[in-house]
Amino acid sequence: MIRVLSVASEAFPLVKTGGLADVVGALPGALSGHGVEMRVMLPGYPAVMAALDGATVVKRYRNLFGGSARLVTATGGELELIVLDAPKLFDRPGNPYVDDNGVDWLDNWKRFAALARGAADIGAGSLDAFVPDVVHCHDWQAGLAPAYLRFAKGRAAASVTTIHNIAFQGRYDSTVFPELGLPAEAFTIDGVEYFGGVGYLKAGLQCADAITTVSPTYAGEIQAPEGGMGLDGLLRARQAVLSGIVNGIDTDVWNPATDTHLARTYTAQRLAGRAANKRQVENEFGLESGDGMIACVVSRLAWQKGMDLLGECIDPLVAAGGRLAVLGSGDAGIEAMLRAAAARHPGRVGIVTGYSEPLSHLLQGGADAIVIPSRFEPCGLTQFYGLRYGCVPIVARVGGLADTVINANIAAVDAGVATGIQFLPVEAEALKGALIKALDFYADRPLWQRLQKNGMKADVSWTASAARYAELYRSIAPDN
Fold first, then answer.
1. What class does CATH assign to 2-248+463-476?
2. Which of 100, 216, 356, 374 is the most buried (most CB within 10 A)?
3. d(CA 333, CA 394)
4. Beta strand pairing status for 349-353 and 323-330?
5. pLDDT, tens digit, for every residue of 221-238?
6. d(CA 132, CA 129)
7. Starch synthase catalytic domain: from which residue to which, for each copy (predicted)?
C-alpha cells in the first residue's frame, strides 16, 4: 500500500468553484482499487469545517502565518480528510479566493503558503498516524509544498505537481519571500523566484519530482510559448518528468440511469426518457416548447472559454432553428451580451447566471448538445458529462477536448465511432459552421442517436487514469 496526501484548495462535495473540485473529490475512490491510500488536505473554510465528521486535532501551530492553527483529521462525505483549521486565514464567507467584489483576497499568498507549509510538514513525517510516500499538489494553491519539501531537513515525501490550468499561477511580489520560511537559497531561478517575484505554481513545477497535467495534448501545448504563459521554457527543461493523464469523472454521481436531478432517468437503450428532461430544460430556461435542437452551455463566461465567440453565433443559430440554454457567470460584458441575445430571441435563448449543480445535471440530461468553444482547455469535464448523458459535445479541437471527443468526420461516422463535433480554428466562423453542422446532423435522427449512443459507451471513468497515477506514485516514492 502506498500512501498519498492530495493537497488542494477545493474538493467536491465540500467546496467547489470548478472542475478542480470534481477531480480532487473523485481521485481517492478511483485509486482505492490500485493499492493507494489517499487522504485529501483542504483549507478549513466554513463549509468544510461544518461538514466534518469525527474531527480529531492531530497537530497545533501557535503561529502559522500570523495566527494559531490546527491540523484536524476527519471524514467529509466519503473523503478521508486532513484539514488546516486556521480561522484567521480561512474563516470567511463566500468564494474561497475572492471577496464579495470579485477581487482576490489580499492575503491569498499567505493563506495558500500556509496550506503548502502544513502539507510539507505532513510529508516530512509530522503526523505519526499518516506518513505519506507522495504529496500530490494541485495547481498554484498547493504549489509551494514541493519547495518546502525540497528544502526540508531529513526524510521527506516525494511530490507531484498537477497543472489543471496554467493560466492561474499565483505570482506575488518578492517582498513576500522573507515571510515564507524558506531558506535564502530558495529564492533563485532553480527555486521559487519567478520574474523577480515569487511564483507558487513555478515553485511546484521546479521542485516536484514529477509533473502532470490533465491531458496529453495540453502537455504538449504548454511547452510552446503561446500555451505555456511564461512557464514553457521550464516545462521544456523538465519534459522528462512531465506527462499528460486525462481526467475522468465519477460515474456514480454522473449516471443518467440514477440521477435524482433529472425529471426522468434513462439509458442508451431508452433514450426516449430524455424528452421529459428536455421539457424541464424548456421550463427552467424560458424556452418555447418544441422538438428542435437545444444547445446548452455550462461554463465560466470568460474569454478562455470562448464565450465571446458564442455570442457572435447566437443569431445564426436561432435563424437556423436552434435554441440555446446557458448556465454560468463570469465576465460582466459577456453576461450582458448573452442577456441581450435572450432579449432579442425570447423563447429561443435562455440564460441562468450563477452555478447550480442540479441545473447542470438537468442540462446534460435534457439538452441535445453541449457547446465548449474554449480557446484553450487543459482537459475539461463538461464534455465527459455530455458523452455520459447523450448530450453531444461541440468542441474546439484543443487540449483535452481534442483527446476525448471523436470528431464526426465522414470516416468516423462510417466507422461508427464518432462521438461529437470538433472545430478549428477557434474563431466565430468555425464555431458557427460546427453549430450548423450539428443542426444538420440533428435533423437525421438515426445519425444523431448513433452519436449519442457512441458517446454513452465511451469510458469516461477514472479506471485507466487511476492506474497511471498509481504507477507514477510508485515510480517516485522514496523507498522505490
1. alpha beta
2. 374
3. 23
4. parallel
5. 999 999 999 999 999 999
6. 10
7. 3-236
Q: Give CA–CA dist 284/21, Å, rounded.
A: 26
Would 2-248+463-476 and 268-457 be classified into the same CATH topology? yes
d(CA 310, CA 83) in angstroms, rounded, equals: 40
User: In this structure, what C-alpha cell is assigned to residue 316?
Assistant: 445564426
**How high is the pLDDT of residue 41?**
98
Cα–Cα distance measured from residue 329 to residue 331, given in angstroms and rounded to the nearest whole number: 7
Element (H, E) at 395: strand 392-396
Instruction: Taking each helix axis as running N to C, give the angle between helix 200-207 and helix 108-123, from 0 to 180 degrees, rounded to the nearest 10.
Output: 20
Q: Measured in whole angstroms, how far is the alpha carbon of residue 42 from the centre of its chain?
A: 16
Write down the pLDDT at residue 480: 63
Element (H, E) at 404: helix 399-404
Helix (H) or strand (E) holding 233: helix 232-237
Q: Are 305 and 297 in contact (CB under 8 A)?
A: no
Residues 103 and 126 sit within 8 Å (Cβ to Cβ): no
Type of residue numbered 320: A
In the chain, where are the structural domains located? 2-248+463-476, 268-457
DSSP state of 256: T
Strand 294-301 to 369-372 pairing = parallel
Report residue 402 as a C-alpha cell. Answer: 481534442
pLDDT tens, residue by residue, 294-313: 999 999 999 999 999 999 99
268-457 has which fold? Rossmann fold (3.40.50)
Is 432 within any annotated ligand binding site? no
